[in-house]
Amino acid sequence: MSEKVTEVTQREMIRIIGLFRKQGFKGNYLSFQHVADEGAAYFVVMGDENNGNQGLFKANLLTGEVEFQYMLDEDHVVSK
Questions:
Q1: pLDDT tens digits for range 36-67
Q2: CA atoms of 18 and 71, how far apart (whole Å)
Q3: How far is CA 78 from CA 28, 50, 54, 57, 63, in A?
Q4: Domains of the chain, with CATH numbers?
Q5: What gap in Å lies between CA 9 and CA 59, rounded to an integer?
């Protein structure tokens, strides 16, 4: 199994953003990351420009699903 982390391409980002918009999500897309060992699944951090809240979502381009994971705060952060 490879430990190589691949960057999310611009094309993948556009597809992910399209999936979020199709489902009515609005906000700032702060980061994208591949989910290890899940093919077309990605973790996405979205921020609300009005109040600064950030949430972690899991998006799957094959199934078209977007799942909320949790709100980010000092106890739940995404490493850069």
A1: 888 899 999 999 888 889 999 999 999 999 99
A2: 22
A3: 15, 21, 10, 11, 24
A4: 10-72 (3.10.450)
A5: 15
